TrEMBL record, chains A, B:
Organism: Trapa natans
Keywords assigned: ATP-binding, Metal-binding, Nucleotide-binding, Ubl conjugation pathway, Zinc
GO molecular function: ATP binding; metal ion binding; UFM1 activating enzyme activity
Domain spans labelled THIF-type NAD/FAD binding fold: 64-318
Any GO CC annotation of this UniProt entry: cytosol
UniProt superkingdom: Eukaryota
GO biological process, one term: protein ufmylation
Keyword Disulfide bond found: no
Coiled coil: none
Record protein name field: Ubiquitin-like modifier-activating enzyme 5
Pfam families associated with the record: ThiF
Length: 425, 425
């Protein structure tokens, strides 16, 4: 737009010089250009130009100042690294579009977007899309919006359905493409975010990620719009989406079926916004290595209740690629243990004083084996495909407390023995 | 835009008829219009027209179908009531602008927006505003964006600073104005959302709401961008913002000061998005009477930890209006108790079977007195002005469990007695 304005101004200047006589018919053309110029100037938005290097300079015109400030605050060690990362977002709907916008505003290196649906006015109860985009494909509309917000982000959009044979092939090859960062190990992307709304599509993302040994995050919102979840899936290390019996998640009805019957799932911009926020916050923690990446985070908005859990892979998983990854993970255990021991020794060496005296959140390095022991109790828990399967708030509250101030018993015989032992002293 | 297009088409038709001769100079004018028409048609967005009645019809063109579905799902009894409500949002920044967008997409009746700041490129790391709005006031930019998203919402914007004498006067009179719904009791708004970033402005909102006996919600994100909170404040019933010693919150440095010194607070679109989502979800629960409205909800994104608490008013509060409201609240106790007893009796009458057999979240009506007793323990806790004052995750985890499936003891003598009683049977 700025270029167009400049060209028109130049043309007017030369017109003025060549036709000094005011009765000349070209004056009419001049007037036309002047009017058009004025119109343009009035409505022309000043687009943000590309920024070559992320700077921490505190000026109003720097779109990255508030993000680079994270380094000075001691939250992120090297924020600029965000430009190296590629994130794939499967479905650009209520969660996916907001996640894409958040990552774009954070200056992510490259986004790969997959969807086959069109924007409708019925989607206006969620963030990101605007009414004038109704009728556009969600991928096109997202690219239009995101490119405007941050032209520094490399956007790749794929208008396809990953659950079709051809769609899956393109999905796989796009994830494997390493043109953006040829030196990267593994696949061509750093993380896949699943923002789909049905079981079938989740199983397809699961299959692709198991095959590629690709870490991914799952997300979802319940049909009644009031709860949601995010989940981290690392092939071989955590449960994959197929590790639990499909019946657990099969109660999720395909949205297309619902539409056909003249009913539709409810949705709120709030629940979608919270889930997208948790998803991208964990994405940033994972990529930029700060804080704790949640293995599972639920959100029940009716009670403002936030359940968590962890799930190990199922050795009887029906997914062959998952079993392959589990085997690799086990085989790599000695190397992992050695690295861990080395790191622990280094931590002990510097652990004479607290690293940060002002440790307001009481954040501390915890021995992995302690976490392992603690989590064994929740190994039998079924994974979460749909948010209605979250443990109830009451179950959560009934977990035994492990504080040192009290003693919990659930067996009278055991209790008796303990009492006798105490009295014997 | 559509009107402009139509007028131009009409003009072209009449031009064609009056000048059939192709050599006529007016043909040039015709060409100009045709070209301009083509340009307009190419870039003209199809704006969404106003919707008179909210309908539950499931068609792609219905912007309210997914929200009206909340009624069919049994979440909200009467969603259409949302059009009766007025919500005031103080500051349209990182949290306020997203909260405003969410409420607009939900079809809120009326929004009152207050800000004095301008949109800058440095704000692009948060949702809502776009680069081409740089230089506009935040109120103007918000109105432009929100009116486009949902023209059904009545928007009132106030470009002013509520902490100035004149700004405060306009703020007060705008809250008192009942033109939108003259029959409404109390002030002219149903809820005030404080989305300010400093202590001084919070105290001003607190003063206004105490004077008007206006329920409000407080929100904030820490300077290091990784934690935030929301808080419900009901004058006389909960602690007001002045009920706790100001020193607790005085560590929050005014953002303007920071800017002057060449440093700036960090921010993430994720933390802001989660806090705005929690804030508006609780606003919807409060207005449409569903779920549980949280008295306080914290969010520590590094650990995905969500602390809660409740705070009673301080009988030694320094705010005179707060003491006034506390007195009124105490005087109204007998009437409140009578109403509560009546409601409890009604609940008992219908409590022969569960209201919803499929009560997946185990939601139940709880006797207020039980809650009162439970919360007495946290009465001495200091209120939260800034998120860095949140209780630590470790404190939270050490709370005693109260589930019925197990027996918790902290007194051996008591335990002995219980055992003897059991053995006596």
């Amino acid at each position: 737009m700025e270029v167009e304005l400049k060209e028109m101004l130049d043309e007017i200047q030369s017109l003025k010089q060549s036709f000094p006589d005011s009765s000349n018919p070209s004056i009419e053309k001049l007037h036309f250009h002047v009017k058009r110029l004025a119109d343009l100037a009035k409505s022309a938005p000043v687009w943000r130009s590309k920024v070559k290097d992320m700077s921490a300079e505190v000026v109003d015109s720097n779109p990255y100042s508030r993000l680079m400030a994270l380094q000075r605050m001691g939250i992120v060690e090297n924020y600029k690294r965000i430009r190296e990362f590629s994130v794939a977002i499967v479905r650009v709907g209520g969660i996916g579009s907001v996640a894409a916008e958040m990552l774009t505003r954070c200056g992510i290196g490259r986004l790969l977007l997959y969807d086959y649906d069109k924007v409708e006015l019925a989607n206006m109860n969620r963030l990101c899309f605007h009414p004038e985009q109704a009728g556009m494909t969600k991928t096109d509309a997202a690219v239009q919006t995101l490119q405007d917000i941050n032209p520094d982000v490399v956007l790749e959009s794929y208008t396809l359905n990953i659950t079709t044979v051809q769609g899956f092939e393109t999905f796989m090859s796009s994830l494997e493409n390493k043109t953006f960062r040829p030196e990267k190990e593994g696949s061509g992307v750093d993380l896949v975010l699943s923002c789909v709304d049905n079981y079938e599509a989740r199983m397809v993302v699961n299959q692709a990620c198991n095959e590629l040994n690709q870490t991914w995050m799952e997300s979802g919102v319940s049909e009644d719009a009031v709860s949601g979840h995010i989940q981290l899936l690392i092939p071989g290390e955590t449960a994959c989406f197929a590790c639990a019996p499909p019946s657990v998640v099969a109660s999720g009805v395909d949205e297309r079926t619902l539409k056909r019957e003249g009913v539709c799932a409810a949705s709120f911009p709030t629940t979608m916004g919270v889930v997208a926020g948790l998803l991208v916050q964990n994405t940033l923690k994972y990529l930029l290595k700060f804080g704790h990446v949640s293995p599972f985070q639920g959100y029940n908005s009716l009670k403002d209740y936030f359940p968590t859990m962890e799930m190990r892979p199922n050795p009887q998983c029906s997914n062959a690629a998952c079993l392959e990854r589990q085997k690799e993970y086990l085989l790599a255990k000695p190397a992992r243990d050695a690295a861990k021991a080395k790191m622990e020794a280094e931590v002990l060496l510097v652990a004479e004083g607290p690293l940060h005296a002002d440790n307001e959140w009481n954040i501390s390095v915890v021995n992995d084996r302690e976490i392992d022991a603690k989590d064994t109790a929740s190994l039998d828990t079924l994974p979460e495909g749909l948010t209605r399967e979250l443990p109830s708030a009451d179950e959560f509250l009934e977990l035994p407390a492990s504080g040192p101030a009290e003693m919990c018993v659930d067996d009278l015989e055991e209790l008796k023995k303990q009492l006798e032992a105490l009295n014997a002293d």
